[in-house]
């Protein structure tokens, strides 16, 4: 169970921060989606929470400063899946997912029966059983995406940071993956933070959104509060209509204006 809080977080790569002064909290078992136009700093913010880029400010997990955690403790608490992971093509899906158990292994120790059963269970949860013996290099983009999610889920962390988990998935597979994630969150109480380009998916799955533009937080709150036609025009330079489904979820629809 992990509550995540950020206060005045700035992060970047060189001298100039590309994310500035972001403050946001995510309650235990909640889902936060970071949205914003290309280059806004979404991935950088996620990497800052994961401790993968230099950052300033305060990041706490259940009140404990993230930078006071050892590397191993951090890996037991935070699971991070990058947007474009480097994948060892010759590894089988099972062996790749087993890498998620690394934070629990002692020096030179082999995986235990319990590690193997967690991997089996994770493969089963993500319908990857049939692909378990396949090498990563032979999988389709969508299958790989599921394998990446499986590795991070096998890590059994209470906070998941997922950078664009639906990249390259068709609408059905994207929906299935997000549903599975939501189910795991409900069953296990995992806190989820994702970046998502698809604003409709973000609105339908996340409890709260933060909208970044040029490194700054420009809006945060419930999806229907953040996703307004005016705000999307201002920050994305996009012509959209925000519709509402029968269930009350926002749908962000691009609109083409035919000019005479
Ligand atoms: N490794 C890096 N070194 C230097 N600058 C970087 C690096 N990675 C990203 N940046 C810059 O930081 C800024 C924010 O990038 P970031 O990837 O966080 O944006 P993003 O919102 O995730 O974008 P996108 O939607 O295009 O994936 C961009 O200007 C980008 O060029």
Automatic annotation (TrEMBL):
Question: Sorted alphabetically, which InterPro entries does this protein's record hold?
Answer: AAA+_ATPase, ABC_transporter-like_ATP-bd, ABC_transporter-like_CS, P-loop_NTPase
Q: Which SMART domains match?
A: AAA
Gene3D superfamilies linked to this entry: P-loop containing nucleotide triphosphate hydrolases
Where is coiled-coil annotated?
Answer: none
Keyword field: ATP-binding, Nucleotide-binding, Translocase, Transport
Give the domain of life. Bacteria
Looking at the Swiss-Prot or TrEMBL record, what is one Pfam family this protein matches? ABC_tran
- Example GO molecular function term? ATP binding
Query: What region holds the ABC transporter domain?
Result: 4-239
What PROSITE patterns has UniProt attached to this entry? ABC_TRANSPORTER_1, ABC_TRANSPORTER_2
Asked whether the keyword Ribosomal protein is assigned, the reply is no
Q: Does the keyword Signal apply?
A: no
Official protein name in the record? ABC transporter ATP-binding protein
Taxonomy-wise, where does this protein's organism fall, top ranks first? Bacteria, Bacillati, Actinomycetota, Actinomycetes, Pseudonocardiales
């Amino acid at each position: 169970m992990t509550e995540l809080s950020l206060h005045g977080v700035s992060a970047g790569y060189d001298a100039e921060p590309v994310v500035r002064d972001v403050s946001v909290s995510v309650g235990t078992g909640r889902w936060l989606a970071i949205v914003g136009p290309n280059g806004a700093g979404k991935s950088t913010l996620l990497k800052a929470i994961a401790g993968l880029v230099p950052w300033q400010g305060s990041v706490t997990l259940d009140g404990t400063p993230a930078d006071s955690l050892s590397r191993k403790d951090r890996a037991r608490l935070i699971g991070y899946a990058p947007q474009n992971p480097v994948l060892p093509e010759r590894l089988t899906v099972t062996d790749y997912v087993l890498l998620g158990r690394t934070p629990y292994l002692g020096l030179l120790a082999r995986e235990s029966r319990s590690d193997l059963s967690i991997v089996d269970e994770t493969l089963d949860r993500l319908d990857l059983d049939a692909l378990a013996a396949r090498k990563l290099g032979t999988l389709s983009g969508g299958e790989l995406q599921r394998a990446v999610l499986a590795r991070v889920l096998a890590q059994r962390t209470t906070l998941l940071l997922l950078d664009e988990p639906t990249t390259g998935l068709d609408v059905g597979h994207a929906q299935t993956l997000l549903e599975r994630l939501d189910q795991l969150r409900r069953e296990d109480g995992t806190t989820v933070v994702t970046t998502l380009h698809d604003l409709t998916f973000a609105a339908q799955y996340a409890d709260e959104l933060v909208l970044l533009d040029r490194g700054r937080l420009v809006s945060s709150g419930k999806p229907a509060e953040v996703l307004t036609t005016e705000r999307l025009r201002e920050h994305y330079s996009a012509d959209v209509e925000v519709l509402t489904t029968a269930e009350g979820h926002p749908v962000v629809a691009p609109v083409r204006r035919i000019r005479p």
